Amino acid sequence: MAGIKFTVGCLLAALLFAVTCGVRAADDKEKAEIDALRKDIEDLRKRLNASSAPTRSSGVERTLDNRYGPNATVTTKSGKLTIGGLEQIWFYAFQKDNRGLFDGVGGGANPDTNEGQDPSSFRVRRSELKFSMDIHENVTGVVMIDPAREATSFPTVEDNQATTNSIFKTINQVSPEFDSANGPGLGSTADIAAVQTGAGAVPRILQDAYINYHGVIPHHDFQVGQFLPWTGEEGIRSSAQLDFCERSFLGQNVDNIGRDLGMTVHGTWWDDRFQYWGGFFDGSGNYFGTAGQEANRANDNEHFDYNVRALVRPVWKQEKWGSLELGASARGGEHGEGLYAGRDPVNNPTNGLNREQVWASWYNAWIYYAAGPSSPVRGLWLRGEAAWIKDRNAPGTVVDLDGNGGSASTFQQTSGKSVAVYGAYGAIGYRISDSCWCDCSNGWLKNFEFAARVDMFQNVMTANAADPSVTDVFRTVVYTGGINYYIKGNNAKIQLNFNAVNNPEGTAAHSFHTVNNDSFVMNFQVAF
């Protein structure tokens, strides 16, 4: 019996020892697991702390990044956004002449200086930013701004006898000295002084703001909003594609009057060989107005301007014959306001604005030719355009050098009849990279292009000496020689122009001073 008790006691002692050891082993295992977990947490913390340091991207990541490199389109989650821009930086220098166009006219002491218009200067000519959103396969929205449009202190190139507010030598371009010599009331002092000091009203910087509908009706698209009416060829051509630093007088007038609010339909056939446009716009102001006067502005009468344009390309991008384009456009509408029965409209003479109601007209025709790659004159191109414009001027915008238009102290035309002007230009160019000399030229010579232009326009207006309601118009001719150096096509280029300016001489009653205002212009351009 005693032996059995001893055996049971040993078994119980062994079991107790085993349980104790098992518990201790379990505790050791749990502790080891806890230690391992702590180590893992510490390692994770170290990795997280180091995550802010640059890491080497994978091949997939590098491929995705490269999608947004040069010449790639930036896209959004909703639709596709394309961003473009144009930057043009100018340096210009004018021939010095302290006398202006109207100096000494009318037999009296009428000084008209040019000192505010001929200093050499740098200029940001354009700083356009354009955003195009393809929100749907049939709908595109476009917005373009140009903050450089805020500038008001720069003279017009090619002829500095006008300012950036207009290409016409009107009352707002007569000097303060003229006003002072002829008595108060001319109305030009504040305007020209603002130009000379860099002050003055800020023009509208909003350029394009329109929606384009396409792909619904075959060969046609529709556009509504603010954009340039389809007038001529050079005036609506992209500013990045200009052959010279500045447009011709005709092109400047289109760009100067600026964008308008309206709607158009555009049709294109046979690979763009035949195209046409038709539409209508508000048509505020007039065709001789100041910069940006039609942009983002309410209609000023009960009528619209109507606009049609067409072009045909009998040959286009052919190996031997090259490219030929012929085109014409017309724009017109009722400007001013007639007298309604029983009341005076805001534009009636009795209410002070005194704007004659007239059917304004604007016609353009153009031609373009570029020799083909197999032509013996390859590298050669030719352009030409002509325009005829009829409208009435707003009161107080045409100088009356005799002071007969209103009172003896105003020297401004107060009630002018409608007037027509015309102009034309012809240009020729030769691009080395497209010529027969390309293969035998040094690499840097291939980037050159040589161009020349003759530009004529009736840009000077004065009231007639016998009948101040009649407007006399005078022609300025500018001869331009240019050199273009293409660093990367039109995306990066440098242009140099010399403009020989021949201002009009006037008439026997109103002879003008021959202003020495030839100019040199240098344009640095980047477009994207």
Give a brief outline of the structure.
The chain has helices at 2-49, 59-66, 176-182, 189-197, 249-257; strands at residues 80-94, 121-136, 139-145, 206-214, 220-227, 260-269, 274-281, 305-318, 322-335, 358-370, 380-391, 419-431, 448-463, 471-488, 492-502, 519-527. It has five helices and 16 strands.
Average pLDDT metric:
80
Q: Order of strands in the sheet with the most strands?
A: 1-2-3-4-5-6-7-8-9-10-11-12-13-14-15-16
H-E string = HHEEEHHEEHEEEEEEEEEEE
CATH class identity: Mainly Beta
The overall strand count is 16
What characteristic shape results from the CA principal axes?
A: globular
What is the percent of helical residues?
10-25%
Low-confidence stretches: 52-56, 184-200, 340-354
Characterization of this structure:
This protein has a 16-stranded antiparallel beta barrel. A hairpin with a 3-residue loop joins strand 8 and strand 9 (322-335). It is built from five helices and 16 strands. Mean pLDDT is 80; it is low at 52-56, 184-200 and 340-354. It starts with a helix and ends with a strand. Helix content is 15%, strand content 37%. The chain has a single domain (79-527), classed as Beta Barrel (Porin). The protein is of the alpha+beta class.
